[in-house]
Design goal:
By secondary structure, the protein is of the alpha+beta class. Helices cover 17% and strands 35% of the residues. Strands 1, 2, 10, 11, 12 and 13 form a 6-stranded antiparallel beta sheet that branches. A 4-stranded antiparallel beta sheet has the order 7-6-5-8, with no helix packed on it. Strands 3-4-9 form a 3-stranded antiparallel beta sheet, with no helix packed on it. A hairpin with a 3-residue loop joins strand 12 (208-221) and strand 13 (225-238).
Length: 285
């Protein structure tokens, strides 16, 4: 199985701040993936201002302030330079969670290989949760934040699926049934990934379009707690042509028909594929 990350508040915060910078109120999807994201965006956007651990930086006509901000936050992603009228925005979530009671270092074996692990005996509640096959451990922290851990029987296919499962896990907490376990043991984590979020590119707000989109996520889990650092950086460019003026792009093999109204049938017709997509020079033959 492969690691999949489903985290959307930092992306939402970045795009919400972008709307503010370009004086727009909403985004418009160009494809089903963007439409799926925008449903999450609309559900999350009112919460973004409540997350004090997210910081922002903006650059107008230059990415320098944004890239400097990212470096200062120990983030590797860097935006390419932009045009004078374009804008660049970055958001960084830096969240540190400490377990209410420090755990112990341990080991877990999987497929005859040992992995460093954490054993927590205090501040843990294990229960069955509706729609989840395996027991769920709820870990208490020194703040209001809770951490949930459960084994999934199948490989998640996308960040969207992970996020939807996480939402369901939280929503179904009222239907829990406590189980008799003496705490929880789980692998330590040291993760640093740059997931592709190119599916955001092209999303529109009025006459502005997202031109670059980068993400980096760091996660550490040990016997003391958890630390998440997530960064998102985007650029927005002003479109020279409004949406209604965009040309229809014929970028696949196509049907060509010549019609003369005085004739009952097409004067000429052809299905033209890439084998003849060439510049003919002049029309002389």
């Amino acid at each position: 199985m492969k690691t999949v990350i489903g985290s959307f508040y930092t992306i939402t915060g970045c795009l919400e701040r972008t709307l503010r910078e370009v004086d727009a109120s909403s985004w418009e999807a160009l494809n089903p993936i963007q439409a799926r994201f925008l449903r999450i965006f609309e559900a999350c956007r009112s919460d973004v201002e409540k997350i004090r651990e997210i910081e922002y930086e903006v650059g107008v006509g230059t990415v320098d302030p944004v890239n400097t901000f990212l470096k200062r936050k120990n983030i590797k992603i860097q935006l390419d330079q932009i045009k004078p009228k374009d804008v660049a925005i970055a958001s960084v979530l830096d969240l540190l969670i400490e377990w209410v009671s420090e755990g112990k270092k341990s080991m877990i074996m999987r497929e005859r290989k040992d992995y460093p692990a954490v054993l927590l005996n205090r501040g843990v509640l294990v229960s069955n949760v509706k729609d989840f096959v395996n027991p769920v451990a709820k870990i208490t922290s020194k703040t209001e934040d809770k951490v949930y851990i459960t084994i999934l029987p199948e490989q998640p296919t996308s960040p969207f699926q992970i996020f939807e499962l996480a939402c369901k896990l939280i929503e179904n907490q009222e239907s829990t049934k406590t189980l008799e376990f003496n705490g929880v043991k789980f692998p330590m984590i040291n993760l640093d990934k740059q997931p592709t979020i190119e599916w955001i590119i092209g999303i529109r707000a009025n006459d502005w379009t997202i031109g670059q989109a980068l993400q980096q996520i760091k996660l550490k889990l040990n016997e003391k707690g958890a630390h998440v650092k997530e960064a998102v950086a985007v650029t927005a460019r002003a479109s020279l042509i409004s949406k209604l003026q965009q040309p229809l792009t014929i970028d696949k093999p196509f049907l060509l028909v010549f019609h003369r109204p005085s004739l009952k049938r097409p004067l000429f017709s052809a299905f033209l594929s890439e084998d003849c997509w060439q510049n003919p020079g002049s029309l002389d033959m």
